[in-house]
Structure formats: C-alpha cells, structure tokens
Amino acid sequence: MKEIRLRYAEEKDLDDMAIWFADEEVMYWSSGSHGETLFTREQLAERLATMNSLHSGRWWMIDVNEGAKGWRAIGRVTFRNYEPVVHAVTIGITIGNKEYWGQGYGSKAIRAFVDLLFRRYNLHRIQLDTFQDNIRAIRAYEKCGFKQEGKLRQSFWTTKGYQDRVIMGILRSDWERKQE
Ligand SMILES: CC(C)(COP(=O)(O)OP(=O)(O)OC[C@H]1O[C@@H](n2cnc3c(N)ncnc32)[C@H](O)[C@@H]1OP(=O)(O)O)[C@@H](O)C(=O)NCCC(=O)NCCS
C-alpha cells in the first residue's frame, strides 16, 4: 500500500472536493445523499475560509504518495462538535476518489487521524456515527479500534429510506492500549 499523509485543506483542494461532494454515490455513503448534503465549490470555499478554531472543526486532506507524480489528494477527514468539558469530538471521513475504496486507505487514514487528534488535542473520546447499511465504514472503524456503542432507530434519512444511526466511539484508554 502507498504511503499516506494528512494535511490541512487549502484553497487548491476545492476543485477535488467539489467533484467528490457533488457525486451522489460518494455522498450517499458519506451522509445519505439527500439534497442538502451536496455542496457546490462556492459553499465549500465559504466553509474553508471560516474554519480556523478547534470549535468550528477543521478539514484535513488525505494525500497518497504517487511516487514520481508526487502527492495526490484522495479524500478528507474532519472533526466537529468539540465538547470542552468531556474533551470529545465527532469525526467524519470521505475517500472521495472511488478508485481507492476497499484497499485499506480509509483505515490507514482513520488510524492516522485518531493518533493526531489524541496527541494534539488531549482528547478523552472520539466518536462518530454512520447508518446501518454502511458496513464498509463500520468495518473500517472497527479495525481502527472503534466500538459500536448504540443505535438510534431510524434517525438517519437516506435516499433508500430511514436507517438506524450507528454510534461508534474510541476512548483514550482504548487508544493507549493499542500503542503498547
Ligand atoms: C468508509 C471508507 C472511509 C472506508 O475506507 P476504505 O479504504 O474503503 O476501507 P478499508 O479497505 O480500509 O476497510 C474496509 C473493510 O470493510 C470490509 N467490507 C467492505 N464491504 C463489506 C461488506 N459488504 N461486508 C463486510 N465487510 C465489508 C472490507 O473487507 C474491509 O475489511 P478487511 O480489511 O477486514 O477485509 C471509504 O470507503 C469511504 O470514504 N467511503 C465513502 C464515504 C463513506 O462511507 N464515509 C464514511 C461515512 S461514516
């Protein structure tokens, strides 16, 4: 598998992101693909320009090392909803370049992001949610140490109808055990 790196999203990434987030298949798996989740380049640019603090969350690009061709962005990881008392955040991941699905790049990026967040932000807990049909995502998160913690029945609306929301989380203690 090729090397990956995470870096802050920049303006030059907007063209890639605009393609990924206008793709109905990518957006279905990312967030159920209802109309409000399809972003234009202008909407992405506005979000990027205003995100600087921990509280508003940040976007990191996932780059793959393509050797002589250099680094190529294949997706994005994000966090949101920083809870200062609990020291928790909610994360999300989208590999927007579909050629890279199912080859371990998502798990590799999730591991790198979890390491970065626990080390840099002194977090106690990282959580996320997805919907019941997204088995590939659930499996990728489990491989990285996330546990399924519960379900909110039919709380996710998708173009295939209502689905259960699967809540997953990893604690600092789970992560520390994996470092040993
Ligand atoms: C979800 C996502 C990040 C996962 O990354 P990935 O690189 O595709 O996944 P990985 O190859 O690292 O791991 C996927 C695992 O799921 C397994 N899997 C995939 N489809 C499966 C299925 N239908 N049933 C059972 N297991 C399945 C794979 O075999 C693999 O597990 P293994 O390594 O033990 O064999 C990526 O596919 C993606 O961005 N998808 C689109 C957006 C999305 O779903 N985002 C997450 C929203 S919460």
Brief characterization of the structure:
By secondary structure, the protein is of the alpha+beta class.
Question: How would you describe this structure to a colleague?
Answer:
InterPro entries: Acyl_CoA_acyltransferase, GNAT_dom. GO terms for molecular function: acyltransferase activity, transferring groups other than amino-acyl groups. Keywords: Transferase. By secondary structure, the chain is an alpha+beta fold. It has a domain at 4-126: Gcn5-related N-acetyltransferase (GNAT) (Aminopeptidase). 33% of the residues lie in helices and 36% in strands. The protein has helices at residues 14-20, 24-31, 41-50, 105-121, 135-143, 172-179; strands spanning 4-8, 58-65, 71-83, 88-95, 125-131, 147-158, 161-171. A seven-stranded mixed sheet has the order 1-2-3-4-5-7-6, sandwiched between helices. It starts with a strand and ends with a helix. The model has no long low-confidence stretch (mean pLDDT 92). Coenzyme A (COA) is lined by residues 26, 29-30, 75, 93-95, 101-107, 130, 134-137, 139-140, 143.
